[in-house]
Design a protein that fits this description.
Blueprint: H1 3-22, H2 34-43, H3 45-87, H4 96-108, H5 111-119, H6 125-149, H7 154-182, H8 187-214, H9 218-266, H10 271-283
């Protein structure tokens, strides 16, 4: 027998002996496959490199799993914080940016009515636009004040509502004056136009106020933004963990396929399945030894 053949035979005999010894473990426990892995890696540099890559991928997957778990924990904490803040104002559940957009849109629809009211002041075009902008701003401030004072400030809310009502009536008077001055249809047409514009102004103001009343508070909005950002981060962490786990499993399968022949030759009978299970657990980090 030549020297290489003699070395291979001796190595195979040592591999068999070490594997049989490794499989003698406690009942129900996975066998210790480290002696088999050591002997197998000494037999081939390709096995050693693949084993090293597999264990590195396993460590990276474990680290990614820990990061995903930490991200989940932070997400759960932010979710609890958001629910606590939201519980202080259970009726304010609508998204804040959307509700403010609705309020602004409703306010903009009052621009025509405010422009007609500003025309009654008899100023130039720029002054009329300035007055119309001021009227719109006052309506917007009144809506925000009503929303602010609606939480436990009933007297201030009533005063603001009364002032807003008087202001809307004043706008109606200005519009009536303008329509009577420039119109040729008479008092009835001017009155009808004034009433319609006043009803529209009041309706749009109520729509804006209602939108603000349903909007979540600033604290709840910020908490929801943090929660949403953390949820995205947690999802990304899980995706990265899944990707690294797939890479680890692919390398582990490749290593297991390469050494399965040696495993079949070294392990006695039914112990092959047990050894493969222990080897897979070792390679994927589920039973590192």
């Amino acid at each position: 027998m030549t020297e290489p053949a003699q070395y291979q035979a001796d190595n195979q005999q040592a591999l068999t002996v070490s594997t049989v010894t490794a499989l003698r473990s406690e009942p129900g426990a996975l066998p210790d496959v480290v002696p088999f892995i050591t002997a197998c890696n000494k037999e081939s540099k390709a096995h050693l490199k693949l084993y090293s890559r597999t264990r590195q991928a396993s460590d990276e997957a474990d680290k990614a799993g820990e990061q995903a778990a930490e991200a989940d924990q932070q997400r759960d904490e932010l979710e609890a914080e958001h629910e606590t803040i939201q519980a202080e104002h259970p009726h304010r559940t609508a998204a804040r940016p959307r509700q403010w957009l609705i309020a602004v849109a409703a306010l903009v629809l009052d621009a025509v009515a405010c422009y007609f009211a500003a025309e009654a002041l008899g100023a130039g075009q720029q002054e009329t636009l300035a007055w119309a902008g001021l009227f719109l701003a006052l309506l917007g401030v009144a809506e925000i004040a009503l929303d602010h004072y609606s939480e436990g400030h009933r007297l201030a809310w009533r005063c603001t509502a009364a002032a807003l009502t008087c202001f809307i009536v004043l706008l109606g008077v200005l519009r009536f004056s303008f329509l009577v001055t420039v119109g040729n249809e008479g008092m009835i047409a001017a009155t009808v136009g004034t009433v319609l514009f006043t009803i529209a102004t009041t309706g749009f103001v109520l729509i804006g106020y209602r939108a603000l009343r349903l909007a979540e508070t600033g604290r709840a909005w910020q908490a929801r933004r943090r929660l949403r950002a953390q949820a995205k981060e947690a999802a990304a962490a899980h995706a990265r963990h899944a990707q690294l786990a797939d890479r680890r499993d692919a390398l582990a399968r490749a290593y297991l396929n390469r050494v399965r022949l040696q495993l079949l030759q070294a392990c006695p009978g039914i112990a092959v399945a047990q050894a493969e299970q222990a080897l897979w657990a070792h390679l994927t980090g589920r039973n590192p030894r």
